[in-house]
Amino acid sequence: MGNNNSSLNTNIFTIIPFEEAVKRLLAEELDHLRSSYNKLLLLPNRENFVGKAFLGFPVKFSERIFKVVSNGNGVSFDSMLCLLVIIIRGSRNEKLQLLFYLFCDDSKKMTREEMVGVLTSWQIPLPRHIDFLFTVSEECSLQHFVKWVDKFSPSLGVFDWVLDNDREGFLCARENSFQTYHQFLAEQASFTESQVMALEKHYQKLRKLFSRSKRFDLEAMHKCLHPLYTYDFSQRFFMAFDLNKDGNIDCRELVIGLSAILEGEDSFAKFVFGMFDENGDGILNAEDIENFTEVLGSFCLVGDSLKLDAEHTLPEDNVAVNDFVNWCNNTCEMYKFLGHLKNIVYIVFGVKPDLTFNVIRQWMEMEANLNLITGKPYYIANNEWFKGSGDPVNNAPILASESAVYGNSPRPGTRPVPTITTEGGNLRKGLIHGVHYQIISEVLWCTLEDWYGCDTAICRRARMTADGRIKLELFPLKLNFYKQTVANTLSALEALNSGPVNMQASIDFRSAAEHDTPHPVLRYTGVFYTDDTLTTVISILSEKLKLGREDVRLWRMLPQHKLVLLDETEEKTI
Fold first, then answer.
1. How many whole angstroms separate alpha carbon 46 and alpha carbon 404?
2. What is the DSSP letter of 126?
3. Cα–Cα distance between 210 and 224 in angstroms, integer?
């Protein structure tokens, strides 16, 4: 396993050529890596490679790479750089290719013996769906491996780390000592090492919540800023962070950009300059200035626009960065613009300010002027939590009665039941918005959760009522998913309405055996809304449990667990 070292060395450059890898690094990063590599004397031993070059990476993962990449002369600089770029800034497809080559000796096929050998040598349990990877024969191709991972999302131990984390750790050196990336980046920005680590954690959270591609792209940025800020503003804001113009903001670029906004007036002005310097030549031309004026006048959908009067307009063409900085420092509208950007830094990206409660209140006042958006999730927060004049008390902004928390907070002595939805706990009746609770947007909730902690997040989605108004449905249907004792059968779902009318249904698989006096055991819970259809339930269930839609049926549960098949094609609501 992994003895054919030249095979992986060759395949690294088919995943990403050295020239392309270099383009994904800043000039100073490349110089730093080269200097550090020379100090490691060609990485001739495992200790240098694992303990210094890949410091901060899982040890077993680093050891595996060293085993299959190294030769008698150590690891070449080109191989090391390409590996780091794939792991740190590679696409999902590039990372999957790397994993495939780490499992196998052959560059085209991976055998079952090779994969099992690597996993068992590390005492990692074999994935549940490994048989689907080797259905035709005892070997599989790269293409089949990628499809298998995308469909089943198998647990592969430390290999999961490569796919699930957009790591910004790489070889860093200061004189003769070696740093983690967080230490290195903290020295380049106005943050402490612990702040950088917290920023990375929050960044990963936002990326998973708002990005379909798992990269922090323009779409993810706009989802974070919408609906308070326009798409044009999101686009410009994103452009200032994306230093290497690859369409993705990595953690390093995020920290550098946030630091620029907070460091001072000059650095803030240079950041804003970067939002509108379209071609990156250090000069704002006439079109750039026109775009700047338009965005400044309409960037926020709440509050007054920042219109420039005749005395404070920019020259019509050819404004250099230093001239722009001087102009910003003498224009009061830019101080208001700075206030907006700082609030985004605090609320969206989780940098905790000194006067925390004032920032939270300002953001909530802006959100209160907007209508709810149908289908969008919102969180419920206890109104008592916001009544203090200073910083909120150090507890989670949760509103839920102790005796009526659904799913996430079981009674003492019982095991928690996993939920397949994110809606959280139950609410008591008679609640009034503004008196008992506040409505919190998803992006604000993410930050409050990081700052103050949370036991049970109570999430509800906005729905349109019969009279055309958009409101939160505070009391949705609560569904219990049961697994029967009959072998290989997940057979019953019981849906209990919180209102006076109860409804019961169940779920079954086509491959299930016949129902011989089933004994259901509660395995999952979920929250659905009155206008959700049977198709919606099947879609969410199959996605969360990694099942094929064709393998799931909905049944209605009658007394004595008698099951009646429901027809999803009728598009009936639950």
1. 55
2. P
3. 7
Question: From CA 548, how far away is CA 368, in angstroms rounded?
Answer: 41
The answer to whether 27 and 140 have CB atoms below 8 angstroms apart is no
Residues 381, 385, 387, 388, Cα dihedral to 10°: -150
- 3-state DSSP of 312-354: HCCCCCCEEHHHHHHHHHCCHHHHHHHHHHHHHHHHCCCCCCC
User: What span, in angstroms and rounded, lies between the C-alpha atoms of 91 and 86?
Assistant: 7
Question: CA 56, 61, 63 angle in degrees (round to 5)?
Answer: 95
pLDDT in tens, 447-501: 988 888 776 678 888 888 888 888 888 888 888 777 765 444 443 344 333 333 3
The pTM assigned to this predicted structure is 0.64
CB atoms within 10 A of CB 41: 10
- The packing angle between helices 332-347 and 356-368, to 10°, is 100
**Rounded distance, CA 365 to CA 40, Å?**
55
Lookup result for tokens 């072998």 = 487
**Torsion angle defined by CA atoms of residues 25, 27, 33 and 34, in that order, rounded to the nearest 10 degrees:** 130
pLDDT in tens, 162-200: 776 555 544 443 333 445 667 777 877 888 888 988 998
How buried is residue 245: exposed, middle or buried, by Cβ count under 10 Å (0-12/13-18/19+)?
exposed
User: Crossing angle, helix 77-89 and helix 27-39, to 10 degrees?
Assistant: 130
Give yes or no for a contact between 216 and 248, defined as CB atoms under 8 angstroms apart. Answer: yes
For the chain, how big is the Rg over CA atoms in Å?
A: 27
| Cα–Cα separations (whole angstroms), residue 208 to 137, 139, 202, 244, 391 | 35, 33, 10, 22, 29
Sign of CA pseudo-dihedral 213, 216, 222, 228? positive
Residue with token string 């930050």: 447
Which DSSP string corresponds to 399-421? ---TT---SSSPPTTSPPPPBSS
DSSP string over 1-22: ----HHHHHHHHHHHS-HHHHH
Number of Cα atoms under 13 Å in the Cβ half of residue 497: 11
- Report the alpha-carbon distance of residue 254 to residue 250 in Å, rounded: 6
Euclidean distance between the first and final Cα of the chain, in Å? 52
CA 395 – CA 398 distance, rounded (Å): 8
Whether the upstream peptide bond of residue 44 has omega within 30° of 0, thus cis, is no
* Closest C-alpha to 458, from 470, 480, 479, 473: 473
SS3 359: helix
Question: Cα dist. 449→196, 275, 353, 400 in Å?
Answer: 18, 30, 15, 16
Q: In this model, does residue 541 exceed pLDDT 60? A: yes
